[in-house]
Design brief:
With 476 residues, the chain is of the alpha/beta class. The protein has 21 helices and 16 strands. It has helices at 3-11, 26-36, 48-60, 73-83, 85-88, 100-110, 114-123, 137-147, 172-176, 190-194, 198-212, 264-276, 290-301, 305-319, 329-332, 346-357, 361-372, 382-397, 403-417, 430-433, 451-458; strands at residues 15-19, 41-45, 68-72, 126-129, 152-156, 181-185, 217-218, 227-230, 256-260, 282-283, 320-321, 378-379, 425-429, 438-443, 461-468, 473-474. Strand 14 (438-443), helix 21 and strand 15 form a beta-alpha-beta unit.
Length: 476
């Protein structure tokens, strides 16, 4: 690793940036620089997965915890504004998507107050901002306000700027390069060298250079060790033979991520593909949990027990295959059902009747567990289902909270603790997996991806990358 660059960052007192491609040792660089610092540093990133990764690296390098505070930009800004609600004019503890831009503006304004300036300068000697390509212009406004108070080092890679903000993403040409000093660039693909996949790492290094230059890459044979191309049309999931390339990955315990692009059409495909694979691969959800909150809102608004039962059944169908086959006709209609000799699954029928008689949270949990635990069903949206069960646990433990309030409390904790999912064969989008690392990656419909989405997807797999593409030259 580049220890000289780490010392440069630790000693730097102005506004600077480092170009840090995916898998090139950025997290190690941050931890090494913080370790070399004499006073406490503030390290900001975008997700709690990123927070956990940086903390883990700090611990592995034995960086004293007194040397740093690590947080997301969002939670740091929210906490500071809530500390001073009268000055910041911010009191909303659970901001919604449309609120965040105003929050960042409020926090940037707060940092201009002399007493807040003193507080920040007394608390930290410098700041690091990770994954800077993911910043919106409103977040950049906030970081610029911090950079006026403390030495500031930005780390990122414009090639990975794939987020689609309501607020505009930052423009490096206009907002970074003229105002911040280039401190260095990471050049060695450490992720793949450490994983023993040197050929793959060197190939991806060349791919990154080509894509940055606006060039195409060739998938024509021979490809280096660790890279495989599969020519399959994934527009029709009903032809199961087209999905055969997934099944060899089930023969080992290592994690596998299959990746679609980040547009809405591709997001919808992740759930459909997981459903077609019978839950052998599980799709992951957006952090905001829109489907979860929509369900809870409808459940609370339902006036009749039968209506609530139908909503629960529809939710379970969104998460599991085979739900309709294990329910009686009366249960499907939201009515009490009578068990007969022909009833195949009396436990499910009984759980549904219990929920109709008393729609308590314990009865709802019993019904969901009866459905998902049935041998005829298979879960393909584990992430969504387990989040609901986690919300219900919060609701059971806090009698004074409504279901919606329990969901917001769970969501707050979820942002810190991460996804409640144990399955390690996953399907997601580039937006959901960027910044993360898996032993194996499958890039789905690569010929339909933008250069940036393609680069993010290709750099997720540390040992192997399987590229599903009808074309031999990418981007298509």
């Amino acid at each position: 690793m580049d220890e000289d660059l780490a010392r440069t960052l630790a000693q730097f007192v102005g506004k600077g940036y480092v170009i840090a491609p995916a898998g090139y040792g950025k997290t190690h660089l941050i931890a090494s620089a913080v370790k070399a610092a004499s006073k406490r540093q503030l390290v900001l990133t975008h997700t709690y997965a990123g927070v956990h990764a940086i903390k883990k690296k700090m611990q592995s390098l034995a960086v004293p915890s007194s040397n740093y505070q690590i947080d997301t930009i969002a939670s740091w800004a929210l906490r500071l504004c809530l500390y001073f609600p009268k000055t910041s004019k911010w009191t909303k503890e659970y901001p919604e998507a449309k609120d965040w831009g105003r929050l960042y503006e409020a926090c940037a304004g707060l940092l201009e107050r002399p007493f807040v300036e003193r507080l920040v300068r007394c608390s930290y000697a410098g700041i690091y901002v990770d994954e800077y390509q993911d910043c919106s212009t409103q977040q950049h406004l906030l970081i610029s306000a911090l950079a006026n108070l403390l030495p500031c080092r930005l780390l990122g890679d414009p090639m990975q700027a794939i987020f689609d903000f309501d607020d505009q993403p930052i423009n490096w040409e206009q907002q970074i390069y003229p105002h911040y000093k280039l401190l260095g660039e990471l050049t060695k693909p450490w992720r793949w060298h450490i994983a023993g996949a040197t050929e793959l790492g060197d190939w991806l290094d060349d791919v990154g250079k080509r894509l940055r230059a606006g060039q195409q890459i060739s998938l024509a044979a021979p490809l280096p060790k660790g890279i495989k191309r599969v020519s399959v049309d994934l527009t029709d999931f009903t032809n199961m033979k087209r999905l055969n390339f997934f099944y060899p990955f089930l023969d080992h315990d290592e994690a596998v991520i299959a990746i679609h692009a980040g547009d809405q059409k591709s997001k919808n495909k992740t759930h459909k593909l997981a459903q077609s694979l019978g839950g052998k691969f599980s799709s992951i959800e957006e952090v905001e949990g829109k489907d979860l909150f929509n369900f809870i809102k409808k459940l609370e608004a339902a006036k009749e027990a039968g209506q609530r039962l139908c909503l629960v059944i529809e939710f379970c169908k969104k998460c599991c295959n085979g739900v309709g086959e294990i329910l009686s006709a009366a249960t499907k209609r939201g009515e009490l059902a009578k068990a007969t000799r022909a009833t195949k699954y009396p436990d499910v029928l009984h759980a549904a009747n219990q929920y109709l008689a008393c729609d308590s949270t314990p009865n709802l949990v019993r019904l969901i567990n009866a459905i998902q635990g049935n041998p005829q069903t298979s879960i393909y949206r584990r992430d969504l289902l387990y989040r609901l069960l986690s919300v219900l646990r919060v609701h059971q433990a806090n009698e004074g909270l409504s279901l919606s309030e329990s969901a917001h409390r769970y969501q707050r904790d979820f942002r810190h603790s991460g996804r409640p999912i144990r399955h390690n064969k996953l399907i997601g989008t580039t937006l959901l997996v960027k910044g993360l690392e898996y032993p194996h990656a499958i890039v789905l419909e690569a010929d339909a991806m933008s250069p940036k989405d393609l680069y993010v997807a290709l750099t997720r797999g540390a040992k192997t990358v399987t590229i599903v593409s009808l074309k031999t030259v990418l981007p298509g």
